[in-house]
Amino acid sequence: DTAVSQTPKYLVTQMGNDKSIKCEQNLGHDTMYWYKQDSKKFLKIMFSYNNKELIINETVPNRFSPKSPDKAHLNLHINSLELGDSAVYFCASSPPRTGGLDEQFFGPGTRLTVL
Amino acid sequence: KQEVTQIPAALSVPEGENLVLNCSFTDSAIYNLQWFRQDPGKGLTSLLLIQSSQREQTSGRLNASLDKSSGRSTLYIAASQPGDSATYLCAVRPGDSSYKLIFGSGTRLLVRP
User: Which residues neighbour A32 within 8 Å (Cβ) at sequence distance 6 or greater?
Assistant: First the structure.
C-alpha cells in the first residue's frame, strides 16, 4: 500500500524516559512533517523537512529532535519526556510545491501517554 | 499571524440532509486550503485541496468553495449519510512559502440514521 506509516501506534512511558517515533512514506514525496494534536484535538505543526533538510522548527523544545536519514523517513526522538508531551503525533508528507498542489497526506498517528 | 476558525464546533443532522461546514481565515495570502476528515482515534484523510487560484473543488458528494478575499471556505456535503459522521478539519498553507498547514479546531459532525 502506498501511504504514510508510523510506528508505534501507541506508546506509554514514564516521565523522564527517552523515546522515538518512526515515520516512513512510500509516496516519493520530498517534504515531511511532524504535527502534534493535543488533548483538545488541536493540530499544530512541529517540524518540516524538505529533502532531508530542516525547514521549520515551530518553537518546539530542544528535547524534541527530528532526524531524516533519507527523503522517505522522518523520525522523532524525544528526550526527558514530560507529562505535557502526552498527545497524538502525526507524520505527514507532501509532493514538491508546484502550483499549490502540495497536498499533505497524513499517517495514522502515534498516541503518546506519559505517566 | 494566520488564524483559522471553524464554525460550528459541532453539528447533528438527520440522514439525507444537505449541510455546510464553514472555515474562515484571517490572512487572505494563502497558497492553498485543504479539507480533511478525522474519524475517532484515526489519522486524517484528505478530502479536497483548493489552490489559491481556484474557486471550488468537487469530489463525489463533497464540494468545497474558496473565497480568498473574504477569508472563507465552505464544505458542502450533499445527502448526508451516517458514515459521514466524523470531525472535519480545515487547514490553510500560508502564502509566505511556509512548509506547513495551519489548522482550524474542526467541526464534529453527527449524521443520525
Answer: A23, A25, A48, A49, A68, A71, A73, A74, A91, A92, A93
| CB contact at 8 A, B107 and B11 | yes
C-beta atoms surrounding A28 within 10 Å: 10
pLDDT per residue over A55-113, tens digit each?
888 878 999 999 999 999 999 999 999 999 999 999 999 987 766 668 899 999 999 99
Q: Please give the angle made by the CA atoms of A5, B99 and B74, to the nearest 5 degrees.
A: 85
* Count of pairs with CB atoms under 8 A, one residue in A, one in B: 65
Instruction: Give the number of C-alpha atoms closer than 13 A to the C-alpha of residue A59, restricted to the C-beta side.
Output: 1
Q: How far is A44 from chain B (nearest CA, A)?
A: 7
Nearest to B51 among A35, A41, A101 (CB): A101
